[in-house]
Amino acid sequence: MESLMMDRQLLLSSLLWRTERLFHDKKIITRIGDGQYHEYTYREYGTRVRKLANALGRLGIGHGDRVGTLGWNHYRHMETYFGVPGTGAVLHTVNLRLFPEQQRFTINKVSDKVLIFDPDQLALVEELVDLGIPTVETFVVFGDTVPETRLSNVYSYEELIAAESDEYEFPEFDEHDAAAICFTSATTGDPKGVVYSHRGMVLQAMCLAMHDKLGMSEDQVWLEVAPMFHCNGWNIPHTALLQGSTLVLPGAHPQPLDYVRMVSDLKVTGMNAAVTIGTLMRDAVHTSGQDWDLSSLRTMWLGGQAPSKAIMNWWAEQYGTYVTQGWGMTENTPQICFSAIKSTLRESAGDDELLALRQKQGQPIPLVEIRILGPEGEELPWDGESVGDFWVRSPFTASAYYEDERTAENMVGGWFRTGDVGAIDGDGYVILKDRSKDLIKSGGEWISSIDLENALMAHPKVREATVVNIPDEKWLERPLACVVPTDDSLTEDELRTHLAVDFAKWSIPDRFLFVREVPKTGVGKYDKKVVRSLYTDGGFDAVEAKLG
Amino acid sequence: MESLMMDRQLLLSSLLWRTERLFHDKKIITRIGDGQYHEYTYREYGTRVRKLANALGRLGIGHGDRVGTLGWNHYRHMETYFGVPGTGAVLHTVNLRLFPEQQRFTINKVSDKVLIFDPDQLALVEELVDLGIPTVETFVVFGDTVPETRLSNVYSYEELIAAESDEYEFPEFDEHDAAAICFTSATTGDPKGVVYSHRGMVLQAMCLAMHDKLGMSEDQVWLEVAPMFHCNGWNIPHTALLQGSTLVLPGAHPQPLDYVRMVSDLKVTGMNAAVTIGTLMRDAVHTSGQDWDLSSLRTMWLGGQAPSKAIMNWWAEQYGTYVTQGWGMTENTPQICFSAIKSTLRESAGDDELLALRQKQGQPIPLVEIRILGPEGEELPWDGESVGDFWVRSPFTASAYYEDERTAENMVGGWFRTGDVGAIDGDGYVILKDRSKDLIKSGGEWISSIDLENALMAHPKVREATVVNIPDEKWLERPLACVVPTDDSLTEDELRTHLAVDFAKWSIPDRFLFVREVPKTGVGKYDKKVVRSLYTDGGFDAVEAKLG
């Protein structure tokens, strides 16, 4: 029996309809300098979103066409978040931190027709043109003017939209249509493209809005630190707009002290960031020598890895800030779990138990189903002990990578294999034991150890090499290379110079261990667990002693 | 461009999946006598829902078949809320308060195959069988045993499910399929059927869960007073289950003092009820002569009509309870608006302004679009002054009545005409002036009965008041006020003087009826039709005789 309900689609533009009418006086605030802010209301935001939509039409962008951005977190980038998908076009946020060759790959893979970028990315974009991005017909610089450039067919964002009408009727189309694309780095090979739907992004924003522990309600002043070029900024900008929260964006090249100043200046009440930011902000507070009042900050959502107890306690004690966390990934639009402590557990737990519970990755958000499978594909119990592979499914989980054969490795039988490993306790709290063993997460970015190993082993003076993740105070993890030289004359500097050809500076290992043999597993693979535990047990000296 | 997201459907069973795993220890508590409660966990709930699903299969209920209920708010009725739609069958909650002939009409209209009813409804069901409900093949009594009856093919609920397996795989099907049916009374003719979708009910529950002013979070103990046989209990049972809140159900024939006792016994933190309940509970507190501690009650959501300022203030002063409201209707699954005060308004408003704002019906909830049209079908501005017909659309708004020609009157051009009349202010707050049929047109001027009712109820000596339009030779229509005094000393002159502060002379009622109780509809609203027809049948004397 069919229901008799209207067939209204879950489109991003339907969120904007409401925000403009109910929260027209609420603001989007962007940092444009030390203590300097650009601010305007959601009413002005909506007006400019419509102008952008009209401008894209004039540039020949139609339903399903891709528009790329290379931008920091600011109001103009936020305008593309609704202005591009609102028309039925697809927003491809190119990751600023990828290597140019990878950025070129992603742009060509999805055939971006327009590329909108920040002024500081101009040299990069010129390089991309040299490398070859033939589908891009039009370039737009986020700003008032076009800098001196050898690009052709280039506009400034402001001149592009200036003359456009602010009348624009958002079209209606299927909620399953693409709204955005984001690429995720792979253990081997090129980045993999995830194509988000309007439906999934609306549902994900609603799920985030439901969480009272996150508390993205209308009265929040929310600082979006997580980059908007990665996983739709965790879908937080959409949630803020949906709820009518004040949205604060940190602008270009923000430093930890900038976040501190923004919280203080704007009475920020909530923020989301990679886990390192919680530590870096603490350090910035200390080294600044100033007495900051950050007590407005009720919630700090740290992602990517579990925040340490020390960080949770420091923020609670200093400012009464509740540090929380979750678990997400590009393929899940992105949130899978969010940490919220059940009232029944809160009542019975002591302080230490609570802190331990808060270090778990939380419970699956609504609409997400999760399971753990053992080595034979058998489903494991939720007992907090049984460790296996996490699989998820939901209306906002990727069913495939964009035109990519690696789909078959991860999307099996209607489920997505996350590549993460761990357990689930009896109340549905996920406990990550290990991420996909070949990846290193440094400062919120993935570094592929396999890629580094392959590059190292390509060096003529290297016989064997493995790269593992080791704890780091500032970046949480850094790569450590363990190398067997063929020739005693090999130096660290030679390896660094060698890697710099293909790798961004931040992804190159800080430390190199020269050893006689890399420990191996029974089947002859490099045993990273052994390398890592030798390191954590005793530091470099011990490793060198044992391995060297 | 199509997205590459999984095609997971929004089904009610997907909410249950999560509740059973994450909130298995949270409870559903049902009042079964004075201070006596039945309670079990969501784990047991899920087990019994599965047994019911298996039992329905054994009875031959398939996808799309209709299962009727005639029940109060209790755990077994709650089991049908997920057990019936979970299988793909459709739950038809028959309204206990309709006349038997209307109940028979609704059962036949949708061809219920099974009818599950409370023991106290047995005589009624026997009467319905006499009247003729030929599609019903099986009768089930909510309880342990079957009372003496002349019905055939009748089971007790407990014997029906006892032997069933608690293993049941909820099937996957289209989220647009029907989950539930509810009938709404019409001004003329038979009740009209609204067929709810899984999609709409899931989305509506998510929208309710997002409202921090409603605050249906995991730590709530929520008392569902609104009847589960009407509009899916305002979708509150689904929202409680989605969030893992403790759900409290008042059982059969609850009286106002029972609600007071439940709040006190169970430390209830939130409740939803028809607007009269706020007054009746206050009166029950007074007349009980006991000193109740109801301070656990943070939120009281009153629906159907705006709660008076007197009631808002009384609950706030006595117990710190925040009385809030919204606007909904059967055709909207049911919520359209919910009252939440924007932080920007809260900061600038004085106490009186705040109270006035809280008497508006609130802002459209997410995914709902709303408009007001003038007499020529022109769209009116949101200025708080322009009064017209409210139209809505959303993914949970009815596109048609079930096999009913009256669809054409209300569903036009993809919008639903609500039949309500009013204005919208500049922040999107809806101000209901009247049902279009209840507006009073006197000497060419519109008089809002709702404004008069609110003013009358603000008088300290008035407990209930309703205002209806009655024919008048000279003015065509005049307002008639029907008032329940708290105190026999109340006079017409006192009320006239009171109204003269805010109302023009011509809009003040000529006649006041003092009665012991205002007649109410099946869902507890003032029944203006009855007041009006009593008057038109016999004039004032007759009304006073019948009501007084």
Automatic annotation (TrEMBL), chains A, B:
<dbReference type="Pfam" id="PF13193">
    <property type="entry name" value="AMP-binding_C"/>
</dbReference>
<dbReference type="GO" id="GO:0016874">
    <property type="term" value="F:ligase activity"/>
</dbReference>
<dbReference type="InterPro" id="IPR045851">
    <property type="entry name" value="AMP-bd_C_sf"/>
</dbReference>
<protein>
    <submittedName>
        <fullName>Fatty-acyl-CoA synthase</fullName>
    </submittedName>
</protein>
<dbReference type="InterPro" id="IPR025110">
    <property type="entry name" value="AMP-bd_C"/>
</dbReference>
<feature type="domain" description="AMP-binding enzyme C-terminal">
    <location>
        <begin position="452"/>
        <end position="525"/>
    </location>
</feature>
<dbReference type="InterPro" id="IPR000873">
    <property type="entry name" value="AMP-dep_synth/lig_dom"/>
</dbReference>
<feature type="domain" description="AMP-dependent synthetase/ligase">
    <location>
        <begin position="23"/>
        <end position="402"/>
    </location>
</feature>
<dbReference type="GO" id="GO:0006631">
    <property type="term" value="P:fatty acid metabolic process"/>
</dbReference>
<keyword id="KW-0276">Fatty acid metabolism</keyword>
<comment type="similarity">
    <text>Belongs to the ATP-dependent AMP-binding enzyme family.</text>
</comment>
<dbReference type="Pfam" id="PF00501">
    <property type="entry name" value="AMP-binding"/>
</dbReference>
<keyword id="KW-0436">Ligase</keyword>
<keyword id="KW-0443">Lipid metabolism</keyword>
<dbReference type="InterPro" id="IPR042099">
    <property type="entry name" value="ANL_N_sf"/>
</dbReference>
